[in-house]
Amino acid sequence: MVSKLGQTLHDKEQAEPICRRQLADGQVDYFGLFLIHFPLPLEFVEPLVRYPPGWFYDGKESIGIPNYQAQSIYDKLEYARIRPATLQIELHPYLQQRNLVNLAREEGMAVTAYSSFSPTGSLSLTWTGLRNVAPLMERGAMAATATKHNKTPAQILLRWATQRGLAVIPKTSRPSIMSQNHESTGFRFDQTDLDRIAKMDLNLRFSKPTNVIAHYANISLPWPMP
């Protein structure tokens, strides 16, 4: 079973009681993977301020860290008694994060990619800086690669990640789409395919706390919006 500690609940007085409550609610003794979401303060916090090391729970589970970037990873590794087993990050052809993936692997962490298709909702695509970006599955490179391998663009995007040795977690409630997702590993890209997709990297992040907070909370942020 997998559970997660929310990004605003990292205080040492909160982390362990919340984890114990989740264990009780799930009627389990331990989680196979416990994700520690990156801290998301609503007020600016100086980078040198360290979050207290009460974010871990002494149990049998593995620890995962979603959305951590390099400096946060190095910071956690300085005081974590349980080394993270996995890094979960937004990753797709528009945001390929090669250096971060390499760092995680060097530190012994598996990497899980979310938003493999990049957001396709109207809200995400109207955020400042994203309005002129075509949805990934509508890009010509995706269509050409899908035609070449007789696959859907979604299958191309999933296979691009899994061929790199990344785990993927596509979300769907439709059995037909689940079946298509499962069939995305029965082929391999050649170097021409990989080079074509590599050129699509825009270092473009859709899942940004600044976007979400500003839109839903309507608060004044102490840092500039993209």
Automatic annotation (TrEMBL):
Source organism of this protein record: Conoideocrella luteorostrata
Keyword Oxidoreductase recorded: yes
Name of this chain's protein: D-xylose reductase
MF terms (GO), sorted A to Z: oxidoreductase activity
Matches recorded under Gene3D superfamilies: NADP-dependent oxidoreductase domain
Enzyme Commission number(s) from the entry: 1.1.1.307
Residue(s) at site: Lowers pKa of active site Tyr: K4
Keywords recorded for this protein, A-Z: Oxidoreductase
Organism taxonomic ancestry: Eukaryota, Fungi, Dikarya, Ascomycota, Pezizomycotina
Gene name of the encoded protein: xyl1
